[in-house]
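Email to the structure team, subject: Ribonuclease R model.

Hi all, the expression group asked for a predicted structure before they design truncation constructs. Nothing fancy, just the tokens so they can compare against earlier work. One-line instruction: predict Ribonuclease R, return tokens.
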Amino acid sequence: MTRKRKKKASKGIANLSDTIIKILRKERNKTFNYKQIAAILNVNDASSRNQIIKKLQLLLSKKEIEEVERGKFKAVVNTEYYKGILDLTAKGSGYVICDDFEDDIYIASNNVNKALNGDEVELYVYKRRKHGKLEGEITTIIKRAKTEYVGVIQLSKNYAFVVVDGNKMYKDIFVPINKTAGAEDGDKVLVSLEDWPEKADSPNGKVLKVLGKPGEHNTEIHAILADYGLPYEFPPEVEEFANNIDTSITEDEIKKRRDMRKVLTFTIDPKDAKDFDDALSFEVLENGNYEIGIHIADVSHYVQEGTILDEEAYERATSVYLVDRVVPMLPEILSNNACSLRPHEEKFTFSAVFELNKKAQVVNEWFGRTVTYSDARFAYEEAQAIIESKTNTIPAEVSLTGESYLADQAVADAVLKMDELAKIMRAKRMSSGAISFDKVEVKFNLDQESNPIGVFFKTSADANKLIEEFMLLANRKVSEFVGKQKPEKTFVYRVHDEPDESKLQALQNVVSKFGYKLNFKDRKSISSSLNGLLSDVSGKKEQNLVDTLAIRTMSKAEYTTHNIGHYGLAFDYYSHFTSPIRRYPDVMAHRLLQQYLDGGKSANEAIYEEKCKHSSSMEYLATKAERDSIKYMQIRFMQDHENEEFVGVISGVTDWGIYVEIIDNKCEGMVRTRDIKDDYYEFDESQFAIIGRESKKMYQLGDEVIVKVKDTDLVKKHLDFNLIGKANA
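Reply from the structure team: attached below.
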């Protein structure tokens, strides 16, 4: 053995006791002899093997390991093991979020042990603390959060590496040259993680798909979907199955349903909508009350359980709304045709029909399958024109046809009466403690090549709120109808827990900088003071910041079979029933409601709880993809404005820089602390600010500043600003 080899071997078994303990703890239910340990350490010389034997005897004498049978050892488990989810930092260290501890457990980079961001892991926790935090070591990866990654491939002659997008992957993925799928150097690819050998520095992978050249529009949109494991096309067999479904309106099927084709019915949707999954019907009864039907596309009639179409819809669980396209849950033959409640067409629907009095109180209710006929289709802007003018005149500037026209008087009267009832219902809901989040949505005007040529803000007008109230009514009453049955029946609820007290306190700390105060005395006062805050900031420069922070204080709404009510809406019972074209939980709600209307027994709770978890998880991924697509489009938009100055609000402060949101277009970017040259700035967490060491100049959360674009990186989705100074300086 050369001196060089000896040096390498001795280095390889440095701190040998700790290394052996790690090996035995990692697979603590297995036994190992000295030869197996030597093989794991990749040493085979006599000197190294003797050292392993000696260390095993030393650990045995210390009772850190036990000899199960002659020459076979395993770790003595004298510590409790815990489970949690790993949240990695960009530096490769991380924290495990663990239910057994109030604080997250710090994991040093050398104790991550090949775990990746989001993985479910097993760990043991040291008794010592580091920087005041509990510290642990990951022993086992229970479940990988993901096995497919998006990145840029770097080709060499005999192998390649994929550099993964984002900063949470601390290793490049090694790809053998025969597993590159024909990718060219610099292509953006989707790669699957195949294995990570014990002694390998990087995981091994295989290219699944070449997405295209970085920076190109379709490449980046497909990369966003691929990164979250979201498909952008249907398998051919699913398309074929959907295309072969009989979508005709047959007399036999009509006889099984309540026929509501003669009742005045219409839809109100966004002007660019292609799928209309809800319609409203309106009739004045002889007693002076109003019968209002909420008619929902009967998706479960076409999507039968156990078919490949149902399996695909379940896997997707939701439609994904990106800035330039919709990735639908159902193939177009259903989503835009058979299940879309288009005007002047008969459709099979699932309905919630209510008799309301003049005080908007529900006097009677009926649920069941129907056949309906839509008499008219309105865009929100057209319905809004009726509400504002109190007439049936639709002006050219909001008309779907581009020309002014007179809407049917009966429909206009129905819209006006339903608006009146919706306002009563909304006021009642707000007085019960519901929270009004009318957050401004950022939308882009796109040209034919999907280039952003303008930004506009979508707000909720009376016509939007009319539809919202009646959809809320249907969702609430359906879940109430099932939830109050005895014996208790399994159902899919949409629940929302109470806000976290510490997050509310953090919100108070922020909004106090703007002169606002919250009252946390009880549930009712929290709701009313949050509503007051949201109303007070409306139209102010800090509105988007405060709206965003207020939403973050809320618990995340989710699907479950265990009803705890919906805090944000102030409902004891709530479900999703009104959008089965784009949400799978609504399909499940339809099926369960029909089962119980038919007198069927309660469904298996465990099966539906699993489906609820999957639906919540897919909703979360879709939301992240949607946000990423907005961020990407914002960066594309700002590429054309590189020499302009903008006024923005400081929306976040960290020890590495400040985030600034431009007031005019809501695009958010970062000013890095190191790029502010007039002083050395330090982060002051207590004041949500960075402060100049010499000048004491402060840039604080909520301050208005002037910035200029420094760098736009479409691939990394980074938008960097240079700070010009304070806006009012």
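The chain is about 30% helix and 30% strand. The first helix runs from residue 3 to 12. Ping us if the truncation boundaries need rechecking.
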